[in-house]
Amino acid sequence: MKKITFRTKNLIYVFLISLLISSCSQNTITIDDTGGIFGKTNSPVSFELNLNKNQIIAAQNGRLGIQEISAKNNKIIPAQIEIAENGANSKVVFIMPNGEHGIRKFKLVSTKSPFDTAIKAAPDSKNGQIVIVENDKKVLQYNFQTIYEKDVIRIGNEELEEHLRTERDTFVSTSIYAVPRSDYIHPLYGLEGEMLTRDWPDGGHPHHRGIFWAWPEVEYGTERGDIYALQRVFARPTENIEYTSGTVYAEIYAENLWMWEDTEPIVNEHTVIRVYRSTTNKRIIDLTIKLLAVKDSVTIATRLTNSYGGLNLRMQFPEKQEIFYFTDEVNSKPLRAWSDINGIFKGNKSTSGLMVLQHRDNPEYPGSWKDYPDLAWVQPTFPTPGTRYLLDKETPLVLRFRLIIHTGGKLDNKSSAENWDAFHDQLTPLYIIANSNN
Question: 33 FRET partner, CA 20 to 30 A, in 4, 126, 152, 399?
Fold first, then answer.
């Protein structure tokens, strides 16, 4: 395998800046949070300011903060910037604190000492994979290099699967699916350090691998492969991987090529994993996936075009497992879609869970939900049942999701809707991947 070269830098982003933001000066920002969705959900927000040199230096040193003006709790919280090119203003990102609904005013503050909060992305010294750590506590591992069975991170001895095999399953025997793999997230940890995801499970589904984006039916011309079950087509890393650390978020940007028969590139994949620092009861992870065809006649589909495939989540089996998914009626405005799986995961004495929000800009939104309770699995599928999606060589397929790790059981419908609304507000940072291979 060729050596991977790492480059740490600020990635360039384009954000939709809300019309509800007005900058009175380069130090003061007014935000209209009339509905209170950002304060109630502690979601990230971004805004544009023309920072001076001292503020930029403070941000680079982890000393740039935000303080609410005339608030009962005027604690200074961390802020992080993204330096824009071509003379554009910088984007400032922070986690909205709890507070009163309505107009809220903030000011930038440069502290004397760096914030204690630090969330970092870097290669693991033991295995070389990219890990994200918050205050020395591991959040997740992105496996961009090949993982072999001996390398898999597990919780003790796993029980054999009890899943009943059907004609939809991918295997005749399990051995041909126990294939080394890359380009996925595992482990993903909860707020108490409990392992939420599962990789290379014993028994029936060794190709399952934490959180991974893959399709059971990848057609190239008249041939069919299965990047989901690791048959004929595989995601392989290029040298293009970058990572960012900060006081508000850490981020991984990775490029992979889908290799047909492990020799011929057919799809260029760019993935961005942005992990925000945790709050009292949650952590937000934004995932963006871009697929651009390298060859003509490449299509993707779910199993038999009416089953599983897309963003796949293989979880550990929690005690008292509960799985929910929700999609508004077709003509609803807005039309929301989310899922939640929760229970008591090993390593945690209380209930925790993982929510998935679909972004309404995803093609063919909303994707159908598919759940397998006996596999601790619930996913948003893509593309639409009964169809195959043709990947284009000029216009990429872009899929966005927000993952929310939370404490407690299932969030009520109101809280879930507020999280979805915050994800779709113009104040929310969105990573825009250009229609190019850069």
Answer: 399
